Amino acid sequence: MIETEARKKAATRTARLDAVFAALADPTRRAIIERLSRSEARVTEIAEPFQMSLNAVSKHIRVLEASGVVERHRKGRDHILSINTGSLDEVDGWIERMRHFWDARLDAMERLLVELKQDPKSSHKDRKHGSR
Amino acid sequence: MIETEARKKAATRTARLDAVFAALADPTRRAIIERLSRSEARVTEIAEPFQMSLNAVSKHIRVLEASGVVERHRKGRDHILSINTGSLDEVDGWIERMRHFWDARLDAMERLLVELKQDPKSSHKDRKHGSR
DNA sequence: CTTTTATTCAACCTGTAGGTTGAGCATTTT
DNA sequence: AAAATGCTCAACCTACAGGTTGAATAAAAG
């Protein structure tokens, strides 16, 4: 794989993260996702509990669709929405990766503190794992 | 706890989710977080790799700070930024909750399909758990 | 004490997100 | 065929996000 290709791939991955995080940043859209977690539903059904116009909800759905979090298939005049089960994998992966680093650093700091407390002049010693 | 209090608490939780998801939706801000995952750093250090002005980065940092993902403590004229280790717990929780529901539904559908294939007239039968 | 360095504050510009309303287009119902 | 239903498209408005530049403030270095 050429360097340019790799960069392009990374770019789309970044863009996808952008889109999914942005999609999840709106409370209305999160509510829609939660609704769809129970069962698939038509646009009108989804819009019903909200105060805003049907059009506004329709727009939110399009954002979710563009981010890949929800999918649509038409059945006559009804548009049936459902969640794309794998769509959160990438964001979840990013978050877990970050937490892993943070935990590792916390772990190291804790180890250092313990060492300093026990023996202010010694270097590395035993370690006990498992943070969070 | 009175009903109004509960609603207020839910509202702030929602707002916090909004803020963190929105903070993570920007690639520059994610890069800043990744940088801070290695070690804490001053504003200028953080800004260095980016094309944009220092002021722009400063703004991004404020967004991250407002969302609770990064923390700041001043040391002389330097502002030292670091990540708030627990700040992703809530978003991570939300994502995991959603995935749990999705997986449960996928599981149920799969079970149904297996049943129909094996014995098109029978009802519930054995179940094997563990998705993903 | 003057100058440099680190950072924020304030004003401004441009694009886009999220909402509205009013048509318009298919499909289903009568 | 006509009317009702489900949904989108298009134009528009307002607010805010993300960037710029040009001070202003605070601490450190000369």
Short characterization:
Chains A, B: InterPro entries: ArsR-like_HTH, HTH_ArsR_DNA-bd_dom, WH-like_DNA-bd_sf, WH_DNA-bd_sf. Chains A, B: Residues 9-105 form the HTH arsR-type domain. Two copies of one chain form a homodimer. Chain A is built from five helices and three strands; from the N terminus they run ααβααββα.
Overview of the structural elements:
2 copies of one chain form a homodimer. Chain A is mainly α and 132 residues long. Chain A has 2 domains: 3-83, Arc Repressor Mutant, subunit A (Orthogonal Bundle); 88-132. Chain A has 5 helices and 3 strands. Chain A has helices at 3-24, 27-38, 43-47, 54-67, 89-118; strands at residues 41-42, 70-75, 78-83. A 3-stranded antiparallel beta sheet of chain A has the order 1-3-2. The longest helix of chain A has 30 residues, at 89-118. Chain A is elongated, with a radius of gyration of 23 Å. The A-B interface holds A 14, 17-18, 21-22, 24-27, 30, 33-34, 37-39, 83, 85, 88, 91-92, 94-96, 98-99, 101-103, 105-106 and B 14, 17-18, 21-22, 24-27, 30, 33-34, 37-39, 83, 85, 88, 91-92, 94-96, 98-99, 101-103, 105-106. The structure holds a DNA duplex (30 and 30 nucleotides).
In which range does the helix fraction of chain A lie? 55-70%
How many strands of chain A? 3
Largest interface: A-B, 30 and 30 residues
Put simply, the count of helices of chain A is 5
Main beta sheet of chain A, described?
A: 3 strands, antiparallel
Structural class by helix and strand composition of chain A: mainly alpha
Gap between N and C termini of chain A, in Å? 38 Å
Radius of gyration of chain A: 23 Å
Overall tally of domains of chain A: 2
CATH topology of the largest domain in chain A: Arc Repressor Mutant, subunit A
Q: What is the CATH superfamily of the largest domain in chain A? A: Winged helix-like DNA-binding domain superfamily/Winged helix DNA-binding domain
Q: Please tell me the overall pLDDT of chain A.
A: 87
Spans of chain A with pLDDT under 50 lasting ≥5 residues?
A: 123-132
